[in-house]
Amino acid sequence: MTRARPCRGRILVVDDEEVIASTLQEFLQGEGYEVAVASDARSALASIERFEPDLALCDVQLPGLDGLELLEKLLRLRPELLVLIITAYATVESAVAAFRKGAHDYLMKPVIFDELLTKLDRLMRYRRLTAENQALRRQLHAAVDIEALVGEGPAMREVKTLIRKLGPTRSNVLIAGESGTGKELVARALHAQGSDPDTPFLAINCAAIPHELLESQLFGHVRGAFTGADRDRSGLFAAAGRGTVFLDEIGELPLLTQAKLLRVIEAKEVLPVGATRPEPIAARVVAATNKDLAVEVAAGRFRADLYYRLNVVSIPLPPLRDRREDIPDLIAVLLARHARALNKRVDGLDNAAVRRLAAAPWKGNVRELGNALERAVILGESPTLTLADFPEDLISPSSPDDQSDDLRAALDRFERQHIRRVLDRCDGDKREAARRLNLGLSSLYRKLEDPAGREG
Fold this sequence. Notes:
alpha/beta; Rossmann fold; Helicase, Ruva Protein, domain 3; 5-stranded parallel sheet; 47% helix
């Protein structure tokens, strides 16, 4: 039994001469390429969406729209497409025009097959290298160093400790927290702490994809598995290799898909939709949810066996209202990020704005805080943002933590929080903390005993 030859790439041949087009198709298929043929610009443009070629072999002389005009339209639809122009009337001027419009090479008619293969090999090698470089750049951007997780309060210190312990392992991890608490950031930090952080990190939101398409995205499918499946596609688990698959909003998975995911995790193999043979996988699974999965299990909406498989170790993420001591640091980081993105000078917030933001309820957690700061940066007219730059419903004193409008009491409260953060960073060393705070040691002790630090 002969093994099927691996596909070397997908080529769209565009030529109105039927004999030439069919000859090229037969030859290229014999060399291991998958080939589609178009006789004019209209059918070529239609093929782009359906066939998704890696390279177009395009004749200059076409009915209606010439090859150079078609070249521009093809690249607008698919910018990464490689285009090899074929012409019987090559001149320096026509070659320059083709390159200016985005062609990667050109070939003279009559086509010499050896020359064609040489050019195709070079272009396909270039495409592979480009794809690898893009993948590496995506992975570099995907990795989140643990220091990017803002916050030095007790809750976030515990989260960072867990990430450092779990990162180098291959164990499944369940991240639990309300929407907007930064679950994907934690997942990316876990991946970055792993033994092979250069492997892919692939994320999918289980609530954002229709159920009928979700299995194809996760497990892949074979050609003909359903209407529109015109070729085999790898799912996330296969594409991740030894990297990480991050399943966000795992609580939204339908029960049937939960059963199939359980099989993937237990057997370390995936069965693409429509396939009859499973494929081995090696990806690590990190899942996240804003639901209490134990409650979902009790209600029959989530499989208990899958819950136990995912919840080998859990990382609970605290809501922002439970780590208010981190809010000033979060404000500084998010404000700088938005100012840089919007190319605006913003020096910071005045004290009244910081106090009010630290006392706000933040039902949407860090995401809501970031959105509020982005809005303030956009609308603010001064380098120092004030309460006037924030929505009235946000800055109204509705939080139970905001017990008084007394300025001295508020300042005392935030001063004490700041001293505690610095002490934590110094591992409780009061002498070092006093040095960093630019205080005398006796003043530090006095402020720790009396929040106001007042002289008797």
